[in-house]
Amino acid sequence: MAGSSFGTAFRITTWGETHGAGVGVVIDGCPAGMELCEEDIQKYLDRRKPGQSRYTTQRKEGDQVEILSGVFEGKTTGTPISLIVRNHDQRSRDYSNIQDVYRPGHADYTYDAKYGFRDYRGGGRSSGRETIGRVAAGAVAAKVLQELGIHILTYAKAIAGIEISEDSFDEKEIGQNPFYMPDHGAAEKVREYADRMIKEMDSVGGVIECVIEGVRPGIGDPVFDKLDAELAKAVMSIGAVKGFEIGDGFRAASSRGSENNDEFMMQDGKVIKKTNHAGGILGGISDGSTIIFRSAVKPTPSIARGQQTVSRDGEDVEIHIKGRHDPMIVPRAVVVVESMAAITLLNGILKNLGATMDQVKKLYR
Amino acid sequence: MAGSSFGTAFRITTWGETHGAGVGVVIDGCPAGMELCEEDIQKYLDRRKPGQSRYTTQRKEGDQVEILSGVFEGKTTGTPISLIVRNHDQRSRDYSNIQDVYRPGHADYTYDAKYGFRDYRGGGRSSGRETIGRVAAGAVAAKVLQELGIHILTYAKAIAGIEISEDSFDEKEIGQNPFYMPDHGAAEKVREYADRMIKEMDSVGGVIECVIEGVRPGIGDPVFDKLDAELAKAVMSIGAVKGFEIGDGFRAASSRGSENNDEFMMQDGKVIKKTNHAGGILGGISDGSTIIFRSAVKPTPSIARGQQTVSRDGEDVEIHIKGRHDPMIVPRAVVVVESMAAITLLNGILKNLGATMDQVKKLYR
Amino acid sequence: MAGSSFGTAFRITTWGETHGAGVGVVIDGCPAGMELCEEDIQKYLDRRKPGQSRYTTQRKEGDQVEILSGVFEGKTTGTPISLIVRNHDQRSRDYSNIQDVYRPGHADYTYDAKYGFRDYRGGGRSSGRETIGRVAAGAVAAKVLQELGIHILTYAKAIAGIEISEDSFDEKEIGQNPFYMPDHGAAEKVREYADRMIKEMDSVGGVIECVIEGVRPGIGDPVFDKLDAELAKAVMSIGAVKGFEIGDGFRAASSRGSENNDEFMMQDGKVIKKTNHAGGILGGISDGSTIIFRSAVKPTPSIARGQQTVSRDGEDVEIHIKGRHDPMIVPRAVVVVESMAAITLLNGILKNLGATMDQVKKLYR
Amino acid sequence: MAGSSFGTAFRITTWGETHGAGVGVVIDGCPAGMELCEEDIQKYLDRRKPGQSRYTTQRKEGDQVEILSGVFEGKTTGTPISLIVRNHDQRSRDYSNIQDVYRPGHADYTYDAKYGFRDYRGGGRSSGRETIGRVAAGAVAAKVLQELGIHILTYAKAIAGIEISEDSFDEKEIGQNPFYMPDHGAAEKVREYADRMIKEMDSVGGVIECVIEGVRPGIGDPVFDKLDAELAKAVMSIGAVKGFEIGDGFRAASSRGSENNDEFMMQDGKVIKKTNHAGGILGGISDGSTIIFRSAVKPTPSIARGQQTVSRDGEDVEIHIKGRHDPMIVPRAVVVVESMAAITLLNGILKNLGATMDQVKKLYR
Questions:
Q1: Domain D5-364 architecture
Q2: Which of A292, B348, C203, D94 could cysteine-pair with C299, CB 3.0–4.6 Å?
Q3: What is the pTM for the complete model shown?
Q4: Is residue B338 within 8 Å of B142, Cβ to Cβ?
Q5: Quick one: pLDDT band at residue D122, thresholds 50, 70, 90?
Q6: B24: closest CA among B129, B156, B119, B165?
Q7: How high is the ipTM of this complex?
């Protein structure tokens, strides 16, 4: 069992490595009858592309998605949607000095331990390019969610410890700076710091925040398939993510019950909460308020300065990782986090349609 | 699909509510031929019991586990192991004033939204008693892991913001104080703070840390079933957990690549890492070093002081939650976190036995 | 992975052996809000009980089901329903001479090969008692289906090669003879033959037919989860079943396209078929007509006459299987086939509720 | 949930329709380290191609498989293997008169009922072309099985009621006639009959038999994932298959226990069976003897003669299905049955590697 599928009612299976023919995904379970075209998916992939700034990679990747199946006369048929993005500009020669060594912070060593050998070409299956399948599928999921009135907003909350401020929060800023930060001032500070990092041949990490509006109460399963547990798995499965928290998250660990509880009240005949320390999910089920979570992204491991490591033959060596790599990956991970959130949420909605006899009768007849 | 199962190769299905006949779990996929008896499981359940101190609940719960199937002549048969713990001392009368209101911080409202009505008796399926099945299964999983040389240590790293200190770390202290803290000094500070909380009719949260030794490199799947992603889901599925991080976790978000990378070196012919910022998992696969993660536990929502909420009929009301409940749940959640870690890890090992042709041939013939 | 679960949206997990404490099942995914009590389930179990005639076993089994969870104030809660039937009258002494030998036609040898040893007490997990969990769950599934207007009728179509005749078909006869045959004349012939078999210490097999009315068109998934493929797996998983066919089944193999195709026509504004060679399923999806399938049941392997076999130590031996066993199992398998059909069909309905955007919007809002 | 995946440890996900860009499959869980190239797969696909004789379709389909991922330096990497076969010669104009009518015996009507509309171009997802993904994956599975010493032989046992005879059985004949029959005489009779069918614009069905040698005892799971139950589901999921039986199958239903039981005996220190009425599987687990099963294939529904049906607008109409279609599909279904058997068996082997503690310890360390 190789873990390349995610979801049950809305299931995605990704495939592809950096230097194979391409990467892609098969989406099974997308409801029939929704309009879908390459452009819907391409705009998500474009948010992922490196080369958007000098702060992310200079590798040129002309990733064009092609829909191979599952769409007829512009609408989803309900049958599997197969998407492919062919690989083009992946220069093999950049990676020759790492063929037989284990790069610190990368999965080279662990893949070897598991499989006996690995595809050394640029990280193989563990590379960032694997995220293309996730983002393509996320684009499809996001479109279905929009039809249901659900919207997701994702951005960098902090990079290199420099945080956005609530007072300066401006959604329109997100697309205006290379860091996807909704705060012009913070983005400028990050720009300065990033310039220094590039000089010092180092890298930085950050925190990505995701805000989901429009989810009605009742989505999620109690016990093991709690909606926040599934979001945690989905987001933690993205390479370089080392933490996940929802609502107040780790801050809740040092608060008091009287402060942390969200009290309920009536407003216009609807139940709402006065606060949202829970982050929109209670007992694993959505409560109707905004779902908000954060993920911690470690600094990208590939840095140009020298590092100590070992070779496949068991010798201590020093390596310098040449080639083109990102001094920070947070900006391009933003759309990946958003995609995983969309996929998880749609899966949660689709597998919960028959929770009560009334719902079943409503749809069965 | 109601999400009451966890795992694939080692799968557990829990059942039971607070005031039904009992709670239990069915374990499918436990390898045959291991010695197992009620005592192996009981000692884990006893770590979960409330009434261990005045800081956890005074409810007396004589939880005795009974093995109903799956064991013959003292050994596992490979067939499903069904475990039951009968419910005894759950006084219905304690809950009458909450029958028609939504308690803040609890899943009452969300259950209602999902199912149309809920079992109001003490939280039904969302209550802490549901964890009995998890812990019973965790005991079985932990025993299999011990046979493979894997050991798990879990404790409270912080309560109410009071952290243990590395200098005073003492494993033997864990069983000596009611908080499962491996630091006598910190435990005393917590004791003082907890006494104050009880007076103020409030509650506190904390952080639970879990350390796993002995996992060989290569366990876990790349992409979606990464070992850390599955641990995240497993632990986040525990009620009251609002965050998960592995290795440096959220601290990695503000560190630099040169600081965060774990360099490799040879020692006695084996590959080891100089540091362990990664927390034992790289690219979703174990790297042979200690696996270490933390979970954030929110303050228990049931507090005696008045709270604003709404009734099922849509009226604003104030409630006081009477009855016996925990001023802190971190201590009793420790063994639940350990159980989920054991179950997840064993599931990861069992479903990865045939990753290479050599492994398959070794076992098939 | 031990294969003790069936289904995804409506999932059942059975447990228990002949001589353990009991047998049972956990049902996950039953929609909330349906009335359910022990009697609903007991009446199904009673159809399964041996001792109903001299033609089925004289073992007395007082199987009383107990609902341990998942029902509150007489209605399903949507949380797992745990059912148990305690074991009583299973005399160990009947099986002592088979402890170390492999009974022909039974799973003794194959279990040993798989697990290294087996629970010899009356077949362990492979015994007929394992079907109790299936039937109990089937009773619950059947009740949900009835609420949706779906009804299942199951009976013995043939025993020992003696077939019922269409002209004499009488549904009321099913409960009037020990063979569950809807044909009085055929039942009498079977009675004579069965008497002879008992004298000759031999056993007979038969064919069970299952007729399902009221399934609307559109249930089932194309490709791998075709409704007939899932029914095949469900029914073939019953011990002693060696064949499955739907509609004309194997007769279709020697017919012509012009004979086998079911032509469509309009009737009262609805699409119906003139014939039903397909058996109600086309392309794996229900077509609105009666679903009809058959399963072949082999003769019960436990016979009193001497048989050649080998012992665990690798010696050729002759055995005589003493104790109480069925000269025919077809009659008691009838309700097991019906139960698996109900479970499969309900699972198919529940996991297909969101096949189109219209359905999803209808239920989501 | 759309049912386009099969298997758990060895999982395949197929995609593609007749007139989309292509068809394909993603294989997840293939063990790493096995040699694999396009030719290994192409030779299986070539057995599927129509146009091999005047008795199967004259459509020219140049199906060339391309490996897009999962293979590096000629060996499987353990990561998903994505295979694609581009669609070429599918003339749209052949299908214009069936756009708005439901063809008898096809899934047009049931797809419409499920999805609200359908891709009318040549059957969409329900067409025979969907089997390309299955066969491609089957080729990979078969190669792994061969490495384990397991071999599968599949052929047409009967067509149009004309059966092969045991006395004339000749394996070499299978590749010598267009019907894949291992009996020259029977093949000639079928040829005559088929010529008549073509004149009469009709079609015929048949029975495919599959023989698997080399499976060691112990493969399969008791209860629900019995090896024969999974084979039944796998084979019944192939379009046009209406029945499945193993060993004596439906003949066992009219035999006696004394005739049907396979007695055990020792031979050269190994346990063997004197007969094989069981067909190689007991209690759902392989017993070490030959596994043999049969599937019933209905006559191909597309015939040129007129048929009564209805249009999407609810009118009774008569249709003549023009275009190029098979007068019999049994010959090209032979390799599809073999593929599903290989996939099922490999999945069964891979998910059962850790059935006992001894096996787990053997592989874990």
A1: 4-Layer Sandwich (3.60)
A2: C203
A3: 0.93
A4: yes
A5: very low
A6: B129
A7: 0.93
